[in-house]
Amino acid sequence: MGSPTFDLHVLNSNDLAWMRELNAVFGRAFNEVETYCAEPPDDGYLTAFLSSRHNVVIVAVERGLVIGGLVAYELEKFERRRSEFYIYDLAVDAPHRRRGVARARIGHLQKIAGVRRGWVVFVQADCGDEAAIALYQNFGAPEDVLQFDIPPA
After folding, report:
1. I need a labelling partner for 141 at 20 to 30 A (CA). Which of 2, 13, 63, 132 fits?
2. Other CB atoms closer than 10 Å to residue 19's CB: what's the count?
């Protein structure tokens, strides 16, 4: 693998266009275009989302285009003064995979977590998603857990 030809950017409230591009990348990568692109949030919502210090959005940009990104949430803990960082979405557009884009973004999030007194970065992978599992095993050991989706009342 040669040196990367992409740049990493942590998005802020001025980066609405890149956030919208990232949603399109997620839609294509997850084969969920309807979910990520059919009802885009307005500029005010995205500006507030990107302004929150608890939302971390890191994109990889090449030649001015978003080729991948991750969205993570900083979860402040109550038992100690520390945080956990949960990677909620991570994807790379198909033509740009296997170039270290995902690894670079996870590594950048690890640095952010360290600066903010985070004690762990965690991510979930679906059973059978061998590419994601192989990637995440480079960073840490898997936990044997179940996730339950509980609808709001």
Report:
1. 2
2. 23
Q: How far apart are the C-alpha atoms of 37 and 64, rounded to whole Å?
A: 20
Every domain of the chain and the residues it spans: 7-137
Record the tokens describing residue 85, joined without a space: 């960082």
Exposure b/e, 73-101, CB count within 10 A at least 16 = b: ebeeeeeeeebbbbbebbbbbeebeebbb
Contact 16, 46 (CB under 8 A): yes
CA nearest neighbour of 71 among 89, 53, 83, 47 = 89
Dmax of the chain from CA atoms? Answer: 51
Dist CA 111 CA 115 (whole Å): 6
Q: Could you read off the pLDDT of 93-145 as tens digits, one per residue?
A: 999 999 889 889 999 999 999 999 899 998 877 777 777 676 777 677 777 77
The helix/strand/coil state of 57 is strand
The model's pLDDT over 14-52, given as tens digits with 9 standing for 90+, comes to 999 999 999 999 999 999 999 999 999 999 999 999 999
CATH number of 7-137: 3.40.630.30
> Cβ(132)–Cβ(126) under 8 Å?
yes
Instruction: Please work out, in degrees rounded to the nearest 5, the angle formed at the alpha carbon of residue 9 by the alpha carbons of 6 and 12.
Output: 155
